[in-house]
Design brief:
The chain is an alpha/beta fold. The protein has 12 helices and 20 strands. About 1% of the residues have low confidence.
Length: 404
């Protein structure tokens, strides 16, 4: 996005024109940024050519997933619905990994029938269930074990997944028990060791610590893992002051790891692929001035973008037209939903605003639409893909009659 003649544009399309034609709130995704993100990710790790499986949970739009698939990416899924969506988007089942702590028998059965690449198991009970279902189907399937490396990713507690108090994966003791008793499971092949320590990680050091833990574990077992799944979690900059993850140092750490452990690396990126490709265009309904606060009431709400309410995070907000006239007031940007948590951010010295103005909430491509809901029976927003001067509707706006 950039301002041209004080008007904000996404690629070559004016934000005002998008709102006029398609209404608000509206999710818009930049194809150019998507392409750049995928190519940069591949470039950073090209020395060992990893299998890259896009984390479907970060953005579940089938048409966007189709675009991602064209770059040769596979999929990381955590539910039967996500698996169905990945297959509908045309992703090769041999590039699909099924993660998650609570896969049901139906989900496991469906995954086996679809002949996906790998099921990453997260408990002894799950392994037993996979083996039981595979035996009934007279099939032998590939699985991974997710190890909980007890590594603090130094991120939000709500999105930490690699500490011992988190529900994910198995500890070292259980891991070795599974390996030592694996001969009892006749219908599964143990192909992969999987780890994933959290999300929105901006420091390479937790990854280095994770790799050291995995290396020590591997040195204590004779089992040869064909694949090491390092998960995802690579963060993006949500504001101008955020540091950026040093991919070069992470790449060096992985290459050092691979000198001692000859395995194929798997990544499951989501946010780093789609996070900064998306914006949410919203219109100011009312400006409500009170003794303590000045509320900017938007037509977008927490049902459209849940992250601020759920995690207490901030997204950068920009005016669609720059005026260079700043207000001395403090603005609190909120939605119309009947919850005090329906709040996006509070800003000082922001541009002076008036009712009916358009604003843009930035970096909503990951966990924006995928976390959206119909709370307060609000229809979901339209989704648009911007390709230079072309606007493609990739999901129509819901109507009230759809909800009724």
């Amino acid at each position: 996005m950039k301002y041209i003649n004080k008007k904000l544009k996404i690629e070559s399309i004016n934000i005002q024109n998008i709102a006029k034609k398609f209404g608000t709130p509206a999710y818009c995704y930049s194809y150019k940024q998507l392409k750049e993100n995928i190519n940069n990710f591949k470039k950073n790790f090209k020395s060992f050519s990893p299998l890259i499986c896009f984390a479907i949970k970060s953005n579940t739009n089938v048409n966007l997933i189709k675009e991602i698939k064209k770059f040769g990416l596979g999929a990381d899924v955590v539910s039967m619905g996500e698996l169905m969506m990945a297959i509908k988007a045309g992703i090769n089942p041999k590039k699909i990994i099924f993660s998650g702590v609570g896969k049901t028998s139906n989900e496991i059965s469906y995954a086996i029938d679809k002949k996906i690449f790998l099921i990453n198991a997260e408990s002894k009970s799950e392994i037993m269930e996979i083996n039981r279902i595979a035996k009934l189907k007279r099939k032998k399937i590939q699985i991974g074990i997710r190890l909980n490396p007890n590594t603090d990713a130094k991120t939000l507690n709500q999105i930490s997944t690699g500490k011992k108090e988190n529900k994910f994966g198995v500890n070292k003791k259980t891991f070795f028990e599974i390996i030592n008793n694996f001969k009892n499971y006749k219908n599964i092949e143990l192909k992969c060791l999987s780890v994933h320590i959290g999300s929105q990680i901006l420091d390479h050091k937790p990854y280095e610590k994770m790799l050291n833990v995995v290396s020590k574990i591997l040195n204590q077992t004779n089992h040869k893992f064909e694949f090491i799944d390092l998960g995802g979690g690579m963060g993006i900059s949500y504001d101008d002051n955020s540091k950026k993850l040093n991919y070069k140092k992470y790449n060096i750490a992985i290459k050092r790891f691979l000198k001692n452990h000859k395995s194929k690396i798997i990544f499951e990126p989501g946010r780093s692929i789609v996070g900064n490709i998306g914006i949410l265009i919203s219109k100011i309904i009312y400006i409500k001035e009170t003794e303590k606060k000045n509320f900017i009431i938007l037509d977008a709400a927490m049902n459209d973008l849940m992250r601020p309410a759920l995690y207490g995070t901030n997204h950068k907000i920009l005016p669609s037209i720059k005026t260079n006239i700043n207000s001395k007031k403090t603005y609190e940007f909120v939605g119309p939903i009947c919850e005090s948590t329906d709040k996006f951010t509070t800003l000082k010295n922001f541009q002076k605003l008036k009712e009916k103005d358009l604003i843009v909430i930035c970096d909503v491509g990951a966990y924006g639409m995928s976390l959206s809901s119909n709370y307060n029976l609000r229809p979901k927003a339209i989704e648009l893909l911007i390709k230079t001067s072309k606007i493609i509707v990739i999901k129509k706006r819901q109507k009230h009659k759809d909800l009724m």
